[in-house]
């Protein structure tokens, strides 16, 4: 490190300017990298109505699946997408400690009461079940996201 600093200090002005420019560009590239979106649990903390909207979409026979109903699950950052002319949160979640066999995709309107989900669960013997809003646009968004996820997409193709 001392050698590098000594070399920089002894470099010709043009060479030093070029080195600093390159280092600056590397730092700017890192700073401009897009950060992931928010997590659904953080959005719910700010707006509890999102969870209530989700819960109203979950069928009564699935309410006992706590990770699904309460959204207390392993999640990835949500995407904000425009569907049917309004903004929605689109995301994925799975059962803690059993992600491989129990996964769900969700879409929840930022405003209003629209929500829908797609569940695959070995524990519940569900090989792919859509629920909530009957909007074809929402269903398509869920299945498209599911297929995009690749290794998690074990029931999406069959649902199409």
Give an account of the 3D structure:
The chain has seven helices and six strands. Strands 1, 2, 3, 4, 5 and 6 form a six-stranded antiparallel sheet that branches. Strand 2 and strand 3 form a beta hairpin. The longest helix has 20 residues. The protein starts with a helix and ends with a helix.
Shape: globular
Low-pLDDT residue intervals, each spanning 5 or more residues: 16-33
Order of helices and strands: HHHHHEEEEEEHH
The largest β sheet comes out as: 6 strands, antiparallel
**Averaged pLDDT, please?**
81
The CATH architecture of the largest domain can be given as: 3-Layer(aba) Sandwich
Percent range of helical residues: 40-55%
| CATH topology name of the largest domain | Inhibitor of vertebrate lysozyme, Ivy
- Rounded Rg: 23 Å
Number of helices: 7
Strand composition percent: 15-25%
| Whole-number tally of structural domains | 2
> How many E strands?
6
Task: Walk me through the topology.
Elements: H1 2-10, H2 13-32, H3 40-46, H4 49-57, H5 66-69, E1 74-75, E2 79-83, E3 86-94, E4 102-109, E5 115-121, E6 126-132, H6 136-148, H7 156-159
Antiparallel strand pairs: 1-3, 2-3, 3-4, 4-5, 5-6
Sum up the structure in keywords.
160 residues, alpha+beta, Inhibitor of vertebrate lysozyme, Ivy
How would you summarize what this structure contains?
This protein is an alpha+beta fold. It is built from seven helices and six strands, in the order H-H-H-H-H-E-E-E-E-E-E-H-H. Strands 1, 2, 3, 4, 5 and 6 form a six-stranded antiparallel β-sheet that branches.
